[in-house]
């Protein structure tokens, strides 16, 4: 069945190629494009599929060679910053939208607006609106094509919940339900949730249970934070309430996954990338789990964050062909194959709507999760976020959870300091 | 026959406990690798290896599905070339600074010694830009050459060569040996131990070097072992603990083997470097 | 004429000095230049006088990193030496094969790459079921979150530090011990000195120069601490220093400003402040030694 899917997908891919071929003028002379991706794109099955995309593209564009390179998150940015300084940039690359402003500042990203507008309407309509908006700081500036992404999910260990006497047939609908379940888990002698104050993204995930994109991120005009003191107070109170229930490990620690797998942890709010690990554990050691939307304060509201990875194109003589390659891999046919292979959500809305893709459970939940979620560091591409910003948020969230401030004081001081940090 | 006193027993207990603390983390890593994947550490604390085949399978997977073997090659070449260069260039300079008098000797040596106190991170960016202007990004010379003029190597070798009796130099000169011949046939053999020590320290240091290869060798063809392991250690990587630990352990094997073979020289060499200073 | 006389000397040091000038002097001087400029690595540097220095000195992270560094140095350097001295005396009290075994066992962690040591220790320190907490659990003690509790993070780092470096210093001190003439001990024994008195009155004074080397070297490297806290806290350029910046150190802050914030001018200024501090401390150390020797 897997091969059938692949076959069908490649036929779809080939037909899309013909459409794309018309859009761009092929380059005659030999060029080599350096293509940088996150390290997990350059391993195993994912790498095989990426190489298939590259093969399809280079067959259509004789003389073009594409080298794919995997990099850890940090190495990707550091490598691009260093590369920009020496003029040795990758031609086309992935990165998070949240580091976009730094990359624009060092000249690693070119404005794709005109090339984008020259693409067929049908192509432009494929992308998720909020993801695309993230690439456009101004109406006539477009610095990236949305690529992959995630909306955070709530992974539930069903064994733990059942042991705590919780009915798992329906996920918690509101924060209050959810928190009540956490307490039940704790009373049953297990950990409810990781320590959500340790990582910026998990703080944001909980903030989103009360706030939304309009009260998170930055006002770049006057360089202030959009965080609302009242909402932050409420959220800090949640951290205080969760303090006795948590496992002490962060959302990203390997240790957290281990607790979850060994039925000691009930909830894990995180992106879909942990799913392969949990799936493997389900097969090997009988882990029973599912993933649902993170509940918000009222029924119908979703917590959690969304964040997109982008494909950027460096300025330079290879810019046109690099853009064509970027447009090719972000196109629906490729993104649908990508989604099917990894069962992972991405920013091509048309691919997500493809019936075969939409039927995949992780994608189905992810689409809803991303729709309701909060942008993690918007608006992007305007200015680089000073490094003090994230650490101030983490500092005050943890200090308040430790009891050093009351939630009101914590929120007030955090916001004052964030504004100082941004003003610098 | 010495009596077995409380103190003797205590001494053994303390020594064995500390040896356990020193060795156990490495032993534990081996056990993590040689255990079935997916078994949570909390259920199987990995006190001894539980599955040989699972470990071999992980190692096989890493060697076949990633560029680990090539990275080994790059790292070994990087380390060997660095060792040869550091020893040669350092000993040439140390020979002069320790045994001869010439205008500018003190000031030049003083400037080089200042470099010992400057954190590498301070010079890394301008050095990178220079390397890139030379067109040396993603090349072996880009990895190796900027690290050759090692202030530490010069410092250490000067300490050793100072101990060479001046009479021996004079005697060789009277026998008609040229300047370079004296260096090659008299000075170098006399500080063989120091050179071996320096080679070993340079190996350990180069093998563990992360930051410089990271920025100067950005293409996978030039990845060192440290960088490949970095891909596994990345927080969002899909790999499970066992695989991550396997990648880490494989990186430690060359220095561990190196140590087991040369342990006497290593330990004596390190000892000398400290006491001669 | 005199130049020709010295020519062979200059030729022999030329390879070293040329490479040194190109890959150390030039970078550090250009770094000095950039430290007075606003520079992101790409645009033309813009002269801003002491702006970068003011910014660094006035920033919260700088004072945090410096406070952490002072505590760290005050603890890790003396504790490290004590541990190394203790290990050396311990190994020295054994003979033959066992002495070799213990010496090698204690030295083993030295040869591991830093990234491996950090990965292993992150697991050992993990709350609840990390090895250390499992042992604490057997002893009936509650789980400690070593790498996230601001009260324990520094000690957790120092423990790893000592685990890695004690073996190295031990070997140096061991060699120093071997150089102490045994007649001294015999004379002391005849005078009725016990083991402890021998250590205090013979071993330590005779080890003076060796301990000075270990101390100074330890101090210089402690001021440059980077990879262990970076890896133990799972730092990245977007967020580093661990919970509440409890393990933020100057070199980490500097690298973060360079590659996270793309502020190369600021990072260069930071580097110079740090270098000046290290040179000053080293100068004081050597000054103290000269002063003591003269006395």
From TrEMBL, chain A:
Extent of the signal sequence: 1-28
One Pfam family, short name: SBP_bac_8
Gene3D superfamilies named in the record: Periplasmic binding protein-like II
Broad class of the protein's primary localization: periplasm
Domain of life assignment: Bacteria
Keywords: Signal
GO cellular component: periplasmic space
Localization in the cell: Periplasm
Annotated family: Belongs to the bacterial solute-binding protein 1 family.
Protein name per its UniProtKB record: Glycerol-3-phosphate ABC transporter, periplasmic glycerol-3-phosphate-binding protein
Species lineage: Bacteria, Pseudomonadati, Pseudomonadota, Alphaproteobacteria, Rhodobacterales
From TrEMBL, chain B:
Localization in the cell: Cell inner membrane; Cell membrane
Transmembrane segments: 12-36, 71-95, 107-131, 143-161, 182-204, 244-262
Lineage: Bacteria, Pseudomonadati, Pseudomonadota, Alphaproteobacteria, Rhodobacterales
Start and end residues of each ABC transmembrane type-1 domain: 72-262
The keyword Transport is annotated on this UniProt entry: yes
Cellular component terms (Gene Ontology): plasma membrane
A single GO BP: transmembrane transport
Superkingdom in the source lineage: Bacteria
A UniProt-annotated Pfam family: BPD_transp_1
Protein name, entry field: sn-glycerol-3-phosphate transport system permease protein UgpE
From TrEMBL, chain C:
InterPro entries: ABC_transporter_permease, MetI-like, MetI-like_sf
Regions that span the bilayer: 12-36, 69-90, 102-124, 153-177, 198-220, 267-288
This protein's UniProt keywords: Cell membrane, Membrane, Transmembrane, Transmembrane helix, Transport
Localization: Cell membrane
Entry superkingdom: Bacteria
Any GO CC annotation of this UniProt entry: plasma membrane
The keyword Transcription regulation is annotated on this UniProt entry: no
Biological process per Gene Ontology, one example term: transmembrane transport
Pfam families the record matches: BPD_transp_1
Gene3D superfamilies named among the record's database cross-references: MetI-like (1.10.3720.10)
Residues in ABC transmembrane type-1 domain copies: 66-285
Keyword Membrane part of the UniProt annotation: yes
Membrane topology: Multi-pass membrane protein
Family, similarity comment: Belongs to the binding-protein-dependent transport system permease family.
Listed name of the protein: N-Acetyl-D-glucosamine ABC transport system, permease protein 1
Species of the source: Rubellimicrobium mesophilum DSM 19309
